[in-house]
What we know:
Layout: H1 3-31, H2 33-39, E1 44-49, E2 56-57, E3 63-75, H3 85-92, H4 96-108, H5 110-113, E4 118-124, H6 126-135, E5 142-151, H7 158-161, E6 164-166, H8 169-174, E7 183-185, H9 188-192, H10 194-197, E8 202-208, E9 214-217, E10 233-234, H11 239-248, E11 254-260, E12 265-272, H12 277-280, H13 283-292, H14 301-304, H15 314-323, E13 338-342, E14 345-348, H16 358-364, H17 367-378, H18 386-399, H19 421-428, H20 452-464, E15 467-468, E16 483-484, H21 489-504, E17 524-530, E18 538-545, E19 552-558, H22 568-581, H23 589-597
Parallel strand pairs: 2-10
Antiparallel strand pairs: 1-8, 2-3, 3-4, 3-5, 6-7, 8-9, 11-12, 11-19, 13-14, 15-16, 17-18, 18-19
Helix pairs in contact: 1-2, 11-22, 15-17, 16-21
Amino acid sequence: xxxxxxxxxxxxxxxxxxxxxxxxxxxxxxxxxxxxxxxxxxxxxxxxxxxxxxxxxxxxxxxxxxxxxxxxxxxxxxxxxxxxxxxxxxxxxxxxxxxxxxxxxxxxxxxxxxxxxxxxxxxxxxxxxxxxxxxxxxxxxxxxxxxxxxxxxxxxxxxxxxxxxxxxxxxxxxxxxxxxxxxxxxxxxxxxxxxxxxxxxxxxxxxxxxxxxxxxxxxxxxxxxxxxxxxxxxxxxxxxxxxxxxxxxxxxxxxxxxxxxxxxxxxxxxxxxxxxxxxxxxxxxxxxxxxxxxxxxxxxxxxxxxxxxxxxxxxxxxxxxxxxxxxxxxxxxxxxxxxxxxxxxxxxxxxxxxxxxxxxxxxxxxxxxxxxxxxxxxxxxxxxxxxxxxxxxxxxxxxxxxxxxxxxxxxxxxxxxxxxxxxxxxxxxxxxxxxxxxxxxxxxxxxxxxxxxxxxxxxxxxxxxxxxxxxxxxxxxxxxxxxxxxxxxxxxxxxxxxxxxxxxxxxxxxxxxxxxxxxxxxxxxxxxxxxxxxxxxxxxxxxxxxxxxxxxxxxxxxxxxxxxxxxxxxxxxxxxxxxxxxxxxxxxxxxxxxxxxxx
Length: 599
């Protein structure tokens, strides 16, 4: 190749490279101001703008969780010069020794701190903040910051709402999108909807001089970024009902849940003892105390506790019996204070007249009746073995929402337990067990465990005569398909009649829930007394009202509350009366006072 041609190509290549370089320099220096800003990093200050979190509303537009302004004093230790310690102490309303100790700490760890800006004083009152703002120029390195923190107009739903706290180093490692000083929802709805509620941070950019003094806004504020407030969310909770439910459960351990049957919307979800909303704003200083509390207020019993459902489960067994063709509403069984299921072995029952048909057995909550029904279900000749019949029974029970998570939009839900034939094969040996081995299941005892939410869902199923929508507490939860139990709706009418009689007939008639009666509301209910090997029996009651076109279904579960008709029933009925009538009638106000006396 000719040398002149060779050098010509080199010159062309160099010219192209130079043009590219000049073009890139032009873009960096003239077109894209980002690089210019980066080059000025040593002389600019970013001031974070924290967005307000989204507001959480109840079903009627009342604020469950809002925001209020809170004032902090920040410090960048590397920017602090000699200042009047006593003067700053007077302005902020703190002891001068506090300031000296903090500055000594910053000096000890100056290498680690570097140019970081730290919170010097949290939650300064508004007057002190305004005084500081007027003299801030006298204290280089110190500045004020306005943030928002949560506020709670109702003492309602501390556990279900959850709390917000500042991220720690461990959280930042797992979630690098968060920085020191950021807050995050830790539990409840605050955690479940963190992405929507948190919003997006913004910032102001300021120039500073060689002495690190902030002078003016950089580029006249053109490069500032506005904070984006968090999105508001609307719940299905009724704030007033939630608050009243917590009052009813005060001093007790257990849960109280209300559902709108036609939609599956959760109206109230009480876990007791729970977290008072006043504690939520400062969980950091209360967390250890709450974890040590023997009442376990951090434990949300409504969706996480697994209890024996007790006698309310008899309704499920009766409905399965009718669907399987081994029981009719007219079928009668006798009861002599219990059911003899093996020689010398008897499952006891309370005193009542005998024999009873199905509706009467529901009204009087006869153990013997439902033990007989369970026996006939497992000895049904349609099946080749007890295990096969039990598998069918289990399938029905799971269709009622027991044995697995319901799939609610509330975080932390657990699924309870339903035993399987394989489990009993393992315990007793294949072919070596029958109804008498597991008869306690017929009355909601034994190896069955249910969450209070599942028990409340049973109340909604009975109100709907055989179907339910997944219980949920967020208004924007996608529409759910209707879940069918597989039980003919006509059988539910006999069950509902027995529940109506249990509340609205007299003690002389064998009614077990007369304390739940409210004139004009047609409450239908079923009591339950769940055996507890660790103390007094648990008190259980499910109900709905009115009988036709039900508007509310309720489950009350009170640990160590004794007989279901004495504790859980009046609590549930007061909640229903408050929701449907707006107040408690004068003739029933004694009942509220009577419950208070028992606390």
